[in-house]
């Protein structure tokens, strides 16, 4: 509302030439900016679902605001010049808020502020404090920032995080606990599961109900930077797959006494990370025995198949097959002791009817595609991925289940999905005190 009021004051009535020529030109510039942004996003395959219409409206308004400030600068009063400058960050912020509403990246102002200021995460302690906690029973687990060497992979990455449950601190030496590897979505930081996915309260509650026993959780970096979409493969964008299997996994075993048995390792991923979770497990059943795929695709995707081959594999088509989960499963043959949990949203067309039957109402949105960016034309690579991958897995001995939730493709859905699967995950990786619970 503030952005709209300021923009109206900036445009004003002015002269006939201003109204007839320069304002329409500014509007055209704004529309072109929005079209360019939309084309770029679609070309790069940056989103699983169509963006809400309101996002493109505010992107266009932002572009038009910049044009209005430039074209209307001369022969105007000082206060209008000041407002024209103010309108630019206001409209940009409003577009950013529309983007955030779509993906749920920052669920609260506090989480956004924590990310901007690089504030401490829940339960975060310095690694140097861990020895003093040995032989104690802390009320909650501890989160440690780690810099895992990239000796094996050569993958340049950001600091990652390891969560150690209260049970890890009991005794003179760490118990050989199982591990759950946590992978975020396409645009990510290693802290996203804590800030946007809000997993710490979920893990805390589980630990309190199981005498401090949970798996170790490692929150990994698969991008190296915020907008580097590796899809967890090896290629021109970095050897992300090797980093997870040859850097992260041995590091957890060596430095935190984690179990090295495949049955004690699980991978959880959201969106792009869900694709990674399936891929890592079916490619390396000797390293991982369990996965949770939260709204992932059929396989690593960066646009069309040819675009994916070019972008992720440097044009090497053989690498497509090497990292395609269904191809890998078919070529591997029977698996033993591998299981997966797929969780996805109910298609919005069905969700409307189901929510009406349940007496619920769909979240309101100014976008015709609905809150969260979903509409009837969901990304074709995600659509049906859970069913197709589960069927392919069952054909080769992988146990799997599919869970559907009336929701939208947001971090809040990822949070809910992790909470749903955590008891199953903990039992699957043989967390002490959970077997048979």
TrEMBL record:
Name of the molecule in the record: Membrane protein
Listed Pfam families: Esterase
InterPro entries the UniProt entry points to: AB_hydrolase_fold, Esterase-like, Mycobacterial_A85_antigen
PANTHER family given in the database record: DIACYLGLYCEROL ACYLTRANSFERASE_MYCOLYLTRANSFERASE AG85A (PTHR48098:SF1), ENTEROCHELIN ESTERASE-RELATED (PTHR48098)
GO cellular component: extracellular region
Phylogenetic lineage: Bacteria, Bacillati, Actinomycetota, Actinomycetes, Mycobacteriales
Any GO MF annotation of the entry: acyltransferase activity, transferring groups other than amino-acyl groups
SUPFAM superfamilies, alphabetized: alpha/beta-Hydrolases
Location in or out of the cell: Secreted
TM spans (from-to): 20-41, 53-73, 85-103
Keywords carried by this UniProt record: Membrane, Secreted, Transmembrane, Transmembrane helix
Keyword DNA damage found: no
Region (Disordered), start-end ranges: 358-380
